[in-house]
Design goal:
This protein is 44% helix and 26% strand. A hairpin with a 5-residue loop joins strand 8 and strand 9. The longest helix has 22 residues, at 411-432. The protein starts with 11 loop residues before the first helix and ends with a helix. Residues 420-673 form the EAL domain.
């Protein structure tokens, strides 16, 4: 049976809490769950009854209940009460009982909760009613309590509730459960969830906002419990509430402090993100205006020490005056955001307004220059993160052009940001579906003329985006944190391929590029060694290429150096890639376990055009040799370049003169040649 292993909201725990034997049946008449009292009544274990594949209605307990009646119960929104019905146990014993059947829906399927109200259990329930009375009296003296019927109408409430809610019994009885809460989307969402839980036989507990008769807000810790009224034979629900308004007010005050910039009174970036998310959820159109004070720190130096605070306060006052009825936030010391429906020409008029209303310091006007970006929702960008990125990109462009302008997101920037966002989205999918490819570019040992190593390079051709070059892919991957995923993917593929070549008798080392971001993870070395162990690849076949930026950070971060040493001790070699293009410090060459220098292709490409480049290249090769490092020149495209580099003393060359990046099978063909 397909339903037997499903999980239902009405479970054994709930069934066992009921005062009567109870079972849950699906729409085919098969038993899904039953309580302990039902097991005892029918002499049927839970395991036996769940494994029973024949129709429960047709052949077992409820032979008097016709299929038509059962279908009517399923389709009915209300509970069905049958005064007398004959049951038959597993041992063929006949039992007469009342039946209360309550239909419910779970994940689009129909079910029925059936309670068998045996006369002797009714007597027991009544006899224990004094305990229930004592319990209710205790609750009434401590908590607010409200009883509602199965349709959600209020049947009764206690004095504690009336006192807090300001209702009178005459006015509140007959009101609905939903009328006790504020009329907004958030409240509607929570109350519907509570109601759904109750109707599925589950309790609900949590903090929730309510309203008094006059519409004043108050907060309660609510416990909503499904109950059963023995006198009326009907389902009811009990709401037990504790007033937490005072503690909630304190919490809101603390949140306000956390969300407000104390110097200006504007909201901060954290609060702005929440506001923007709500506006996006409500599908409200707006312009996201990012305003940044140019050369803020220079202004502070040029004027006295009091300028800092007064400048920001006065600038904030001008934003408030100009952008009245707009939402404003302070992002950091000199950056502000205005959320407004106002037109572009009006927003740009803020610069003229500042000139007409200058900020003075010691009776001297402070020359404020503003760089601003206007990004529209939803035309330009559709998330808070995208709006921020677009604004920063726009302001960068404005500043490069001299600043003191407020401009809209350009078509080129808009297109670039949209492509970037699409790449981020598609890259997650590509990594998940293993859609990235690995190509290999060979290096030739100049002494033997043989290919001794290859560099593994990631390639991605997406069906939606098209070809994404490494120069475009890697920065985005580093920014989003997906570089770690790409690094793991590349390492695993490189190890697998190196092992294939080794087994084929080809002695080839494979180098992979690694980012400093990956090595900031203190478990990076452990992870790399784990991949080597998993693939069975010898560490001596793997080389890791790092940039000068990586080397500079590794020099200052002891734990990165330690990880590199650990990998070196296992047999992995490190190559300093793009040598000559980064930071002019050679100290890391002494500290870090670097085996090889790879001179950047920018020097190789201009080698035959400039005598200075030739001297510089020759010097770099000699530097590497003097430190007993291997030297590789990349970007070699002609025989003339190769010959000159060999005379300088390079150990290996790499570039299109040898081969462009190719598939693993093509490397093997090249080796045969």
């Amino acid at each position: 049976m397909s339903h037997m292993h499903k999980s239902f909201t009405i479970d054994e725990h709930y069934l066992n809490s009921l005062p009567f034997p109870a079972i849950v049946m699906n729409q085919d008449g098969q038993v899904i769950n039953l309580g302990k009292l039902a097991e005892q009544l029918f002499d049927f274990s839970a395991t036996t009854i769940k494994e029973h594949t024949t129709s429960f209605i047709h052949e077992n307990l409820l032979r008097q209940l016709s299929l038509e009646t059962f279908q009517a119960i399923l389709q009915n929104n209300d509970s069905t009460y049958i005064n007398q019905i004959q049951l038959k146990t597993y041992t063929n014993e006949e039992i007469t009982t009342a039946l209360l059947a309550k239909p419910f829906t779970e994940q689009g399927e129909h079910f029925v909760l059936m309670m068998f109200m045996l006369p002797e259990l009714m007597i027991n329930a009544v006899s224990s009613s004094s305990t229930l009375v004592d319990l209710k009296q205790g609750l009434d003296s401590t908590f607010m309590t409200v009883t509602i019927d199965h349709d959600g109408f209020i049947l009764e409430c206690n004095n504690e509730f009336l006192k807090t809610s300001q209702w009178t019994p005459k006015r509140v009885i007959g009101k609905t459960f939903w009328q006790l809460f504020p009329e907004n989307k958030e409240s509607e969402k929570i109350t519907n969830a509570i109601w759904r839980n109750l109707n599925n036989g589950q309790t609900w507990q949590g903090e929730i906002e309510k309203v008094t008769k006059t519409g004043q807000s108050y907060w309660v810790l609510l416990t909503a419990i499904p109950t059963f009224n023995l006198e009326t034979n009907e389902q009811q629900f009990l709401l037990i509430e504790k007033d937490i308004t005072k503690s909630k007010t304190i919490q809101h005050q603390l949140e306000k402090i956390a969300y407000i910039d104390t110097e200006t009174g504007l909201m901060n970036a954290h609060r702005l993100e929440k506001v923007i998310s709500n506006m996006i959820e409500d599908e409200r159109n707006f312009s996201f205006v990012y305003l940044s004070i140019d050369k803020f720190y220079t202004l502070k130096e040029l004027h006295d020490q009091h300028i800092d605070q007064s400048l920001i306060v006065e600038f904030t006052n001008r934003i408030k005056m100009y952008f009245q009825d707009s939402t404003m936030a302070r992002i950091n010391e000199n950056d502000f955001v205005v959320i407004t429906p106002l037109s572009e020409w009006f927003i740009q008029g803020f610069l003229s307004y500042l000139q007409q209303h200058p900020i003075y310091n010691s009776n001297v006007a402070v020359p404020i220059s503003i760089s601003g970006g206007i990004t529209r929702y939803p035309e330009d960008q559709t998330t808070f993160s995208q709006l921020m990125k677009a604004s920063i990109a726009t302001i960068t462009t404005v500043r490069e052009a001299g600043g003191d302008k407020i401009v809209s997101l350009s078509k080129a920037t808009h297109k670039a940001l949209n492509r970037k966002a699409l790449i981020e989205k598609r890259l997650l999918q590509a990594l998940d579906q293993k859609n990235l490819k690995v190509l290999y570019q060979p290096q030739i040992d100049v002494n033997t003329g043989k290919i001794t190593a290859v560099e593994a390079l990631v390639r991605w051709e997406d069906e939606v985006i098209g070809v994404v070059s490494p120069d475009e892919l890697i920065p985005i991957a580093e920014e989003t944190g997906l570089i770690n995923n790409i690094g793991s993917f590349m390492l695993e593929k490189a190890c697998e391929q190196a092992l294939i070549w080794k087994k084929a008798g080809l002695d080839l080392k494979v180098s992979i590029n690694s980012s400093v971001r990956e090595f900031r993870d203190k478990n990076m070395a452990k992870s790399i060694l784990g991949t080597l162990a998993k693939t069975g690849c010898p560490a001596s076949l793997i080389q890791i290429e790092i940039t000068e930026k990586f080397a500079l950070e590794a020099e200052a971060a002891t734990f990165i150096t330690q990880q590199m040493r650990k990998l070196e001790n296992e047999g992995i070699a490190f190559i300093l890639d793009d040598f000559g293009t980064g930071y002019g410090s050679f100290r890391y060459m002494q500290i870090l376990p670097i085996d090889t220098l790879k001179i950047d292709k920018t020097f190789t490409s201009s080698l035959l055009k400039s005598e200075k480049t030739q001297k510089l290249m020759h010097g770099m090769v000699q530097l590497g040799k003097s430190m007993e490092l291997k030297v590789v020149a990349e970007g070699v495209e002609t025989a003339e370049q190769a010959d000159l580099l060999i005379t300088y003393g390079c150990d290996a060359i790499q570039g299109y003169y040898i081969s462009k990046p190719i598939h693993a099978e093509d490397i093997e063909a090249l080796l045969v040649k």
